Queue: 4 jobs
Job 1
Amino acid sequence: MSPRKAAVLRYSGGDHDLRHHLIATAERLIAERGGLGLTVRAIAREAGVADGVLYNHFADKEELLAHALRAHVRTVEAGLGGLPEPGSGTVEANLRAHIGYGLALHRGILPAFAGLLAHPKVLAGFAGLAEPGGDWRDRLTGYLRAERDLGRLAPGARVESAAAMIVGVCHETVLSLLFQGAGTPTAPPLGPEAVDDLVTAVLDGIGRTGDRAG
């Protein structure tokens, strides 16, 4: 029996299993090779199925890649650990943790996104799969909002703008290295002093109320 036929039989227990297998296969290929030049044939061969099987579960290759890209982001996030809870520690320390998380997240996912910049349909599909409050930016904004509600930030703190500033720095720092041909950085692209400067700039901008590390 050929490997391809064996794979089809292995996932014949249900369409959901085969659909999940196709997403997992495309996710693995994106993680290993990026999304550039990834074809239906390449995905099908790696999955051990006939090319046309993909169209039984997805409208087109772009829909499959959108699901695979979302799965890739979830996989990267799962390896980054948790984020601090509002009210714990200090705001400064917690923001450093968020920035470290954001930099690591961008290091992990931007190579895949870079290969798909010329495929807006994939990126639009990826955005459409987002769960409300599930992305790191949403969690960062929620954290700052909760700290404001706890009185550890000024009542009028513009937390959405503060979150956008942090996300923008993390995004630009990693993306600029990719554009310079440096590949995916293996070490944090922002040193401790630069992270401290960012935290200070953000907190000075939104008016901390006394929760300051000694």
Note: Residues 91-114 form the longest helix (24 residues).
Job 2
Amino acid sequence: MRQSKIPTKGRFFIELFVAFIVTRLPFIQIPFKWLESYFHELSHGLATLMTGGSVSHIQLFPNGAGLCFSQGGWPVAIGFSGYFGAALWGFLLFILATSSRGIRVSYGLLGVGVLLTIALWGRDLLTIVILLVLAGLFLLPLKLKGKAFFNTWLRIMALMIMLNAFASPTYLLGIGGRGDAAMLASQTWIPAWIWVAIWLLLSGWMLFLSWRRVCDAKPSS
């Protein structure tokens, strides 16, 4: 028998298909777009702190866009971290969802992490409401019973984050001199489209690593 928390190959593709469909459904996909945007801006904020800067606040918008207001830090690391960080967070969530134990603790920590973000970096009412919705995505399932549901739901959320992180950078190609790619191009002289290509490759790599985790699962005794 396979490890109980790691899906079969067929189930992985079903969950990936469900994640893809949900990210394309009007209205329904909005909270999960917010989730990718949250991890995107959180990654900007963490990169700022790690490179010696300070973060004032994070702002999220209903259309899935977001901003991280900060001072100092290394612009290249900060600019690069958004799309890469969102994909990496998605992969880390997939790892949590395929771990053998502690799934309820994982949900709790993720929910508390979002609430902590509100306390530290939430300033406007709309952002706080959006973050409360995201906290609910992690905390409300704890009211339900059934460990299989917890793992499946978290895997699907992780796949949706990675899919959104894969799709989001492509929008930068149509907005000219704005966005993270344009900022990185001005800082490094590397064209914006190359940065977009790097993000696409890294997001694809996170999805591939998730698939490899399924393929490499060892039968349990």
Note: Residues 9-166+176-212 form one domain.
Job 3
Amino acid sequence: MLKSCKHCGRIHERSFQCPSKPKRTNYKVTHVDKFRWTAAWQKKRKHINERDKYLCQVCIRELYNTQQRYNFTNIEVHHIVPIVEDWNKRLKDNNLICLCKYHHEMAESGEISREELLEIVKVQEMKHAF
């Protein structure tokens, strides 16, 4: 029996495996991925964004090739000590910082040191306490 293929638009036998059909990937969901979908993470991410005023904390200090000082586009919350290294720090305020996509990639690759990011967070925590 013939059938119209939704992948290529041609007509094939029903049993024919169309090469245009997308291949399924077996992406394995890790416990870190599951954590990022939790309400606890969503709430904490919102809190950190509010603490940092939805601004990249590296850009506002004009560090590491900053293009725009008050950068509020593509803001991501970064774990200074990664979740896979220390699961217990995943929701700690002093381990989280708002960074733009550019500086987030630099922090992930180690171009921005953890110590420097921790110092920035310490300042933010003191400002937010008042």
Note: The mean pLDDT is 90.
Job 4
Amino acid sequence: MPEIEAVTICSSSKFYDTAQRAEAAFRRLGMTVYTPRYDFNEQHVQVYESDKIQLTRDFLAKIAKSDAIFVVANGGYAGVSVCIEVGYAVAQGKVVLFSEQPTEFALRALVDAVIPIEEIGPGVQSATRAEVAGRSR
């Protein structure tokens, strides 16, 4: 299988600082990185229903263009939107990486690998694809 060349970072807005660290690590590998809209951080701005609908559609399109997703799951947390994104990625046959083991047991069944942000390195591009090749969905 081909290497992972493009990744979408999925994250609760609570963890955007951590997501930006992950983004930098993947960019250092020369990968294409799609990210959440950091300017729509619900910790700092009000996000209206119409915004959320458009953001969700736009974000799923980013996942569709990616080979993998990387979920920033500080403390194992993944919110409702992130759970939707993971389900979509799995349905699209994407590699699913988490920064920490998710606390939600149903999500654990969908994780290909847990890779702490500090450990994002060249091996992530090929090792995860090999793991997925052996996993039946």
Note: Helices lie at 16-28, 49-65, 80-91, 105-108, 124-133.
